[in-house]
Predict the 3D structure of the following.
Amino acid sequence: MEVCSQCYKRLGFGKVGKQCVVCCNAFEKIDDFAREIAKKLQDVELETFQIGSRSRGSLRALQEYLLLNGMDDRKMKQYFNIMLAEKIEKFTGTRISDHPDVVILFDLEDFSFQINIMPVYIYGRYIKRVRNISQTRWLCGYCKGRGCEICNFTGKRYFTSVEELITKPMMELFQAKNGILHGAGREDVDARMLGNGRPFVVELIEPKKRKIPIEEVKDFVNRSCKGKVSVKELRYAQAKEVKEIKAERYRKKYRAKVVFDSEIPTDKLEKAVKMLSFREIHQRTPKRVEHRRADKVRVRRTFQIKVLLHKGKIAVLEIEAEGGLYIKELISGDEGRTRPSLSELLGCDARVEKLDVIGIYLQSVRRLRPQGRR
């Protein structure tokens, strides 16, 4: 069995010849492979990379044969990866790393290679100043994104979204293929997100640029959003923060304009609001979202609720609550699916006419209990 000098050195069998049956003379062509990879990487901004190689087809069959005969060619693959990485470092001025900007997968069967550009992650908080904008792209329910008369052939239920407004300018700056917004929860389409803003992480897919000054990113996004949405506190993030931002427990503060079906005395409203504060709320999945949420009972906690303004049939409330509590249903009761509710405590129908999120904070439930209460 003829093998090249490198495979003979690593495997210790066969005889050195011109045609290597193990690597198909891949070791002799490493310089050519590295130059071709470097050429493909010319338009990609990177500092680090990682190399992997795979075997399949006839080469995989040969590997199985070698293993059956007590010979392991994994050392050859490891050495090939090291040699190829050294050449790429030389031709590109980059370095190999366990946290790479690019992953290169080399196919030892046909000498092809695949370049996988790792995403860029950006953390921040967004403010949504207008209503009737969804957080993420919302496909039309009739055509499922294909385009129809109902959606004016846009394929979307809403013309734009927070995700599109933020990610499109970022994709332009980073020359990325796509952008995904991962939010810490979401506000209703008809609610504004004000105050300190909602935490998010944007994942930019296959970006050719990676090192744009973060202030430049913020300014460009804010100019592009034209006042509808703005971003702040931007910084570069890591992949793990996507999971972290979704797993964190947040305290949220809302301002709600509430309308009653009859005039309510102020002292009665104050008493009901006090009874609704600092207690557990049992909510069965609201009717308005049951088509896209599991039908179950969730237990969430309210904190302080204040009456900011009250006149006749109208009140403005400030509500602090644990993340995941449906505020509209906390007020209306949702036909008994949320208990207790403001409607139940007042003995009259109440509904939220306007809703704003005015604060999202990382804080434990225990610290939010008033003194003297358990």
Remarks:
- Residues 365-374 have pLDDT under 50 and may be disordered.
- Residues 120-247 form a domain with the Alpha-Beta Plaits fold (CATH 3.30.70.2510).
- Residues 130 and 228 are 6 Å apart (CA to CA).
